Amino acid sequence: MKKSLLAVGSVALDSVETPFGKVRDVLGGSATFFSAAARFFLPVSIVAVVGKDFPAKYLRFIKSLGVNTSGLEVAQGKTFRWQGYYDYDLNSAKTLRTELNVFQSFDPKLSASHKSCKSVFLANIDPKLQYSVLNQIKSPSLVACDTMNYWIGTQKEALLKLLKHVDIFLCNDAEARELSKEYNLIQCAKWILKRGPKLLVIKKGEHGVLCFSKNFLFLAPAFLLESVMDPTGAGDSFAGGFIGYLASQPKLEEQVIRRAIIYGSVLASYNVESFSLDRLAKLKRPDLLKRFDLFKKVTHF
Ligand code: AMP
After folding, report:
1. Domains of the chain by residue range
2. Which among 241, 223, 231 has a CA at the least distance from the CA of 285?
3. Which residues lie with the beta carbon below 6 Å from any ligand 1 atom?
4. For 17-38, what is the mean pLDDT?
5. Which band of pLDDT confidence, cut at 50, 70 and 90, is reported for residue 1?
6. For residue 13, with 0-12 CB atoms within 10 Å meaning exposed, 13-18 middle and 19 or more buried, which class applies?
7. Mutation probe of ligand 1 site: the residue of 10, 47, 92, 103 with most atoms within 8 A of C-beta
């Protein structure tokens, strides 16, 4: 059977302000950024919901990326909205507004083909929803999950229940600290790895990522850019490159995981060069591979 990847998460209308510009109600959401990055490695399907107000041009756009949208429901009500602000410290978004809207009553029922997917990414959304999607998948061989402070603050128990069934967990440094109540990131990693995941990736924005497992540690910087416009979606596009590459490979060995981390970092670096998905949409495979090679060159010693 051909490999494919299923992602549940948000499809959103984002309003974002950074020191370099401002946009209103543009396409965003964790599942959107994730799938726009993961599509470079294997076919991706999304499970999500939008409201009747979701612009038809955005739906066409997601389809034009080659993402399977048969699991994207259009429900009565308004689309999920997020409003964020960044000052010159582009590493941390200040959330000004989160409107769950149609996600509040979303109860996804997976199709037969989605249920038989082997790789699943539970992108940032309510952990109860992540759990409900995971529960419907027959025999997943790779389960990865992301979250954010919003859910650690409001749904911690549900998140801990979910983590027991997750192979790979991704979060940023502040979230790792908030979840574990530890300050030191090695202690955070030990705490999290005891709760289910075999692999933990802690994202540190422009300072790169830390990848922990019981057997090895891998540290990677972020790709150094001359211009960053908007970090929104960096974590999700990182996850798309990382999990997309992993899910396309026959075996999850250390070398493959290391390469996957670099693919994730390269995709995130393209994403932050523009607002919304503008840069990711134009990205071509040769550019991706070129930056991957350059990454190797500037970090090798
Ligand atoms: P990132 O910058 O990778 O952490 O992700 C930013 C994206 O996450 C934005 O496009 C938002 O629409 C989406 N987002 C923000 N808050 C939430 C939330 N509480 N649940 C799900 N998605 C969210």
Report:
1. 5-299
2. 241
3. 10, 12, 14, 28-30, 33, 82, 98, 124-125, 148, 150, 232-236
4. 97
5. low
6. buried
7. 10
> Which protein residue's CA is at the shortest distance from atom 12 of ligand 1?
29
Distance from C-alpha of 292 to C-alpha of 265, rounded to nearest angstrom: 9
When pLDDT is averaged across residues 8-18 and rounded to a whole number, the result is: 97
How far is residue 62's CA from residue 36's CA, in Å, rounded to a whole number? 8
Structure tokens given for 157? 């128990």
* 266: its two tokens: 């390269």
As its CATH architecture, domain 5-299 has 3-Layer(aba) Sandwich (3.40)
Q: Average of pLDDT values for 110-130?
A: 95
Residue 133 dihedral angles phi and psi, to the nearest 5°: -70, -45
Give, as one character, the DSSP assignment of residue 221: P
Q: What is the pLDDT of residue 92?
A: 83
Instruction: Look at the alpha carbons of 30, 12, 7, 164 in this order and tell me if their dihedral is positive or negative.
Output: positive
Q: What is the pTM of this model?
A: 0.97
- When pLDDT is cut at 50, 70 and 90, the band that residue 91 belongs to is confident
Identify the DSSP state of 78: P
pLDDT tens by residue, 226-251: 999 999 999 999 999 999 999 999 99
